Amino acid sequence: MSRQRYNRRRFLATSGLAAVGLGLPALIPGTAIGLGRTAPNDRIRVGFIGVGWKGLQGCFGSLVHSFLANPSCQAVAVCDVNQQFLDVAKRTVDKAQGNRDCSTYRDFRELLESDDVDAVAIATPDHWHAVQAIWACRKGKDVYCEKPLSLTVREARAMVEAARRFGRVFQTGSQSRSYAPIRRACELIRQGAIGELKAVHVNCGGPSMPCNLPGEATPEHIDWDLWLGPAAWRPFHPSLADKNFRPYREYSGGGMTDWGCHHFDLGQWAMGMDNSGPVEILPPDGKEVPWLTFRYADGKIMTHNSPQSEGGVVFVGSEGKVAGHGMSTRWRTEPGGIWQLPPGPANPIEGAKAHSDNFLECVHSRRKPNADVEIGCRTVTVCHLGNIAYWLNRPIKWDPVAEEIVGDDDAARWLDRSRREPFNNL
Questions:
Q1: What confidence tens digit (pLDDT) does each residue in 221-273 have?
Q2: What angle do CA 380, 69, 369 make, to 5 degrees?
Q3: Is residue 291 domain-resident?
Q4: How far is it, in rounded angstroms, from Cα 275 to Cα 75?
Q5: Among 113, 249, 357, 388, which one has the highest count of C-beta atoms within 10 angstroms of its own C-beta?
Q6: Range of 259's domain?
Q7: CA-CA-CA-CA dihedral for 288, 291, 295, 300, to nearest 10
Q8: Which backbone phi and psi does 211 adopt, to 5 degrees?
Q9: DSSP string, 159-222
Q10: Are 205 and 259 contacting, i.e. CB atoms less than 8 angstroms apart?
């Protein structure tokens, strides 16, 4: 479907992005204050921003297909800077819904202008998440945003503030939060099934690094400048435009924020730290601290890639141990028999369902979803702090209440990054 070329001046005027900080927009959409919201029995009209590998294929199932499987969802729009991805996504949606009604956009700002969209599902590279999610909140859209939530600590907090200011339902795409075996495991750990929790050992990839890829000619079907968006300009490289942007600091936090947002998230959850975090982050020194270690105010620790992590996440208590893996049913205990009730039809787990289903239910009920944006913020903050400690190779003291690095101005500069205009106003 052809679209009139986007008018940036009009968008800035209606979204209030000319204002400073997180101020209210000049014109507030009715949906932002609860007017015009679809009735509880109506279908929720969803627009998908980013329909490449993460959005249409994914490692644990397609985000688009997951939403389409729910009869309360109507996919009304798809958006991507890659025309080939966009064409495939439209064909997929139209075939699933038996029509040709799905609109297409190259620029997410056009999609956000549409009154036909109630909610957005964001599956773009990490450096885009904050801008797209915050601007969606300002336009009165509910948000499902894939993990990792943000590229920086400050972006994550700005996303929480935008969701709260505009009354949006905001689900972080950490599917483990809706997965029955994992919900049960964390519930039992919090209930004391392994005694007092002492430590959590996490396995995931390492920190990201500066991008040093050579430049290549840009294919005609990719809007490379828009792919970069808030990131500094650099020449095109096919690895970045596909799905291999995660190793590079300009666009992601590496394995620390990729699988770290699953496994560190489980540690935070089991420790009851969904609204808090560590107070000190110690990089490995080859002596007293062999592994990156997060220390919490109550004495608990969480380590990164120690042998005790066993390739997943291991919870160590005063009376036993639980070992598992994000998005897996392979959980074991030492000693055996700790679980009192196995998950299953006879023992349903509250909140266990498809993660997208949980989000859509909450769009109707206006309740917080399983992986509310505050949870996503606190988890990705742990990941980012670990990266900062790795990058600087020195201990970091963290105040989880003020959300500030204590006594280290150089380290504190890593809490945020500069962003290119016109995407520099959060």
A1: 999 999 999 999 999 999 999 889 999 999 999 999 999 999 999 999 999 99
A2: 35
A3: yes
A4: 33
A5: 388
A6: 179-207+255-345+375-407
A7: -100
A8: -80, 125
A9: HHHHHHHTT--EEEE-GGGG-HHHHHHHHHHHTTBTBSEEEEEE------B---PPPBPPPTTB
A10: yes
Model-level pTM? 0.88
DSSP per position, 380-404: HHHHHHHHHHHHHTS-EEEETTTTE
Do the domain assignments include residue 53? no
Q: Is the pLDDT score of 40 beyond 70? A: no
Indicate the residue type of 232: A
Instruction: Render pLDDT for 185-207 as a digit per residue (tens, 0 to 9).
Output: 888 899 998 999 999 999 999 99
Closest CA to 167 of 337, 29, 335, 347: 29
d(CA 232, CA 279): 32
User: Is 14 contained in some domain?
Assistant: no
* DSSP state letter for 176: G
Q: Give yes or no for a cis peptide into 422 (omega within 30° of 0).
A: yes
Beta strands in 221-364 (DSSP E): 280-282, 292-295, 301-304, 313-317, 320-324, 332-334
Amino acid (one-letter) located at 274: D
CATH number at residue 341: 3.30.360.10
The verdict on residue 333 lying in a domain is: yes
The crossing angle, in degrees rounded to 10, of helices 153-165 and 373-392 is 170
Would you call 273 helix, strand, or coil by DSSP? coil
Tokens 């917080």 correspond to what residue? 368
Q: Which tokens is 236 given? A: 């095109």
Helix (H) or strand (E) holding 145: strand 142-146
Report how many domains make up the chain: 1
